[in-house]
Design brief:
This protein is an alpha+beta fold. The protein is 34% helix and 20% strand. The strands form 5 sheets. Strands 20-17-16-9-8-7-6-2-1-27 form a 10-stranded mixed sheet, covered by helices on one side. The protein has a 6-stranded antiparallel sheet with strand order 21-4-5-24-25-26, with helices on one face. A 6-stranded antiparallel beta barrel has the order 10-11-12-13-14-15. Helix 5 packs across helix 8 (159-171).
Length: 785
Amino acid sequence: MKNYILHTLLIALMLVSVSANCSGRENLSTESGYIKIWHDEAGMPHVVASTTYGAFMGYGYCLGRDRMFQLEVLRRSTEGTLAEIFGPDYIETDFLARRDRVSPTELSEGLKNCPEDFATALNAFTDGINRAIADVQAGKFLIDPAFAKAGIAPAAFSQLQILDIFAGTMAARYNDFAMELDNQHLLNSLVRKYGARTASEIFEDVVFYEDPDIYTTLGDMPFFKPGFRFVPTTDPAGSFTAPTNSPTLQNQKRNRLLKALGVPDKSGSYGAALTLQQNGEKKALLFGGPQMGYFKPSAVYGIGLHTPEFDIVGTTPVGYVFIMFAANRHIAFTSTAGVGNLVDLLNLKLNEDSPDLLTGTNCTARISRRIEKIAVKGLPKPVEREVTETDLGPVVAIEGNTYYVKHRAWSGKVVESYTAWFASTFADNLESWLAASDRNALSINWFGADCSGNIAFVHCGLGKSRRSFGDDRLPVSRPTDFISPDKRLAGSNPATGFYANWNCPPVKGYRNGDLQTNWAADQRSRFLADHIAANRDKWSLDYLVQLDKDLAFTDQRAYFFKDFLVSLISIDQLSSSEKEAFELLRGWDNLRVDRDENGFYDNKAAGLFNAFFNALYNDLLGEKLDKFAWMSASDATWTQSALLAKVLLRHSRHDYLGERDANDYVTRIYQKVFAENATDGRNLPEFAAQPMEFAAVNHIGAPTMTSVASCTPFMNRGSDIQLIELSSSGIRISGCTPPGNAATGRSADDQMRAFKEFRYAPRPLLIKDVRALRGRFMVIPGAAQ
């Protein structure tokens, strides 16, 4: 506790004393009684009102106009009523939503106890959405054609339904990962196939306990590590259960489909905060790219809120009351997924004497069951599915008399986390902003910067304080203690001059248990940090544009593995044509680009490396891991294949190479790939560039009933990209939200060209700049309270 107090005081002294108000006096007055809305060149509305209620009412109204059908689909996604309009394909999706949702009772209790300012904003936001619905029903503007396609009409929202959109996405999806059962079934499969000893070796290779070589945002900052009551050991024989069809494995087919639709099966975002001295002035740069999927309409929405008391401009997930990626008059902030271990699977046994009681190690849980009636389009009566719950969480799988219960750290804390995030967006200095993080139970990384050039980073959530009673990579028989932490995982103004995170751990020694396969030496945050460190003399807004380009096109597998793999190829064993292709590969800049827009990669090495890496991985590890090969597989955007290098260096626990020489083996794979692609034996073909599609679905694949937007090649970028410069002279914000900020009309896809050309529209922060906008203007009379 003393360490926490000292840490807090130090940050307070460093940040509060030098905070700067970047706004001007022109923000201190505005007319009352109505709401004015200007639209900037990118279709982002800026709401000018005299009160907080008016600002958030205007925000809700704009969102309702621009994304009405998307909001309806979001509501149905979180409540589990998609099958009612989209048919039998969504029965399972609805069942999972109902099983896993945050209970309406919890949301209702949270709303009763929430701070007054949040309650005011939520009420106004909901009123604004409903005002837009009433106006479209009255014919005051055109309704989204998607409603007619779906055969439904717009319906008003309640405040609880708006809360449920946050709870059902940020909590019950983006913070609801659990791979313990996948890991268990991997282990079971390996035991059946290879025996206990070999199974243990392979399991420890794939689902490793910790990789000390991973990049972390805060480095070696000391912290009280989330620990075990005893040292965990993996006992394959003891862990063995009867063969089963894992529900999580069944989801892999669905995840592959969603990824093909543009829905990420890996959650993520990139962010960086930089502090620099330029022309005698200290500045800060904030760079954010929330990767929440590539959809049409976008997963995020751009908005500006302006009153005499505050200005906030930025983007946020659709349906959220607060602006997640934004700047106010004093600070700017962005976020990345924290990927902390907030969810455990408990393996509890059914009590033979009491069929409604589950027992574990020193714990019991009472079962309750309910029947969910799912209305399905085209079926004469609802489909009935049984949901099994306990006071520790929902039952997600049953194997014999073993019940797997999802135990969530954030249960009961979702609304409090929501209100804390909301409060952080109004902070007038970084210390107040950091203080708000203490109330956020969800695993999120926050970046902040102020006008005096200070930067800060904090890892939120209860993952940093967990106390496990078993191996946290596998289901356990006793619940984890998720106690409130007594210390922040935070820092400010580092010696390096920057913080970077692309979903890596916050500090050395921080683990995420069952999700460890994502946190190895090849975790992509190192690329981001290396790029920033290597270009220190170029730090500027222009540099952030170049960084965005390099993030977009760099094959992350090539960055981490190409030079190593190329070094293993024996040149003297290659034919002249193979050597020519080898030199092309060795000299490739790792970029997957199509500058002439002919549909093919400019450098054939991009396609050759893709085929080479996949063939090598599949041959060396794919057969051994079989249907679990996805656990350590990588693609151009996401790397988790450090095991591949360890195997070739013979640093793995299990010997995958056997008597094969690594150089001869890699050379043979390279020659095989060359022969398969150079069908004439001499020349490589043109390799088609991977297209990028903004699919007409939402985060779970539910249709949004619009067209698809696309471009080539694929770019590994944010759903929104925002660049912010802060100094004593003010705050400059620019960004791009593809395909556009609305679902219909000109702004539905008007950002696609800017996205492809790496152009970013200015996002005005101050009222004087908003009033100078020449875009669409409208007034909502009688709306401000």
